């Protein structure tokens, strides 16, 4: 019975650690060779692990709004740059350079050094 319990426990640990490793993906889905500049209004800033997210409403030339789902660094890395969960708030107007999704969907990857407020103020607190 003890061997079966030990084997079951070892299997559970293996499955749990494998799932965590599989959950962290590569950034190959983003086109790092063709960055895109976006200007928009923050709908939501998700300061969550393992990655932060910005939901950014961007107006097209025809006036229609599209919400871009932008994946960023982990909060632990953003904290080193002076960010917090309160750095961006809904309604903030920003200009950001992203690495877009290769699929063409409205999404991409962002980095703290490539974002600023629309009025030109830097968001990144530390240099």
Low-confidence stretches: 5-10, 14-22
- Individual helix count: 2
* Rg (C-alpha, Å): 19 Å
Which percent bin holds the helix content?
A: 10-25%
- Shape category: globular
Most strands sheet: 5 strands, mixed, barrel
- Order of strands, widest sheet: 1-2-3-5-4
Total DSSP E strands? 6
Order of helices and strands: HEEEHEEE
What does this structure look like?
There is one protein chain. The chain is built from two helices and six strands; from the N terminus they run αβββαβββ. It has 127 residues and is α+β, with helices and mostly antiparallel strands. It is globular. It starts with a helix and ends in a 10-residue tail after the last strand.
What's this entry about, in short?
The protein has 127 residues and is α+β, with helices and mostly antiparallel strands. Helix content is 22%, strand content 31%.
Secondary-structure topology with pairs:
Blueprint: H1 2-23, E1 36-46, E2 53-59, E3 65-71, H2 75-80, E4 93-100, E5 107-109, E6 115-117
Parallel strand pairs: 3-5
Antiparallel strand pairs: 1-2, 1-4, 2-3, 4-5, 4-6
């Amino acid at each position: 019975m003890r061997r079966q319990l030990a084997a079951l426990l070892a299997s559970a640990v293996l499955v749990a650690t494998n799932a965590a490793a599989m959950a962290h993906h590569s950034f190959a889905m983003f086109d790092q060779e063709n960055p895109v500049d976006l200007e928009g209004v923050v709908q939501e800033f998700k300061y969550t692990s393992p990655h932060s997210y910005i939901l950014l409403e961007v107006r097209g030339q025809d006036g229609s709004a599209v919400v871009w789902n932008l994946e960023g660094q982990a909060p632990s890395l953003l904290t080193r740059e002076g960010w917090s969960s309160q750095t961006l708030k809904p309604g903030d107007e920003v200009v950001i350079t992203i690495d877009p999704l290769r699929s063409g969907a409205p999404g991409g990857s962002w980095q703290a050094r490539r974002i600023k407020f629309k009025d030109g103020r830097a968001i990144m607190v530390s240099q």
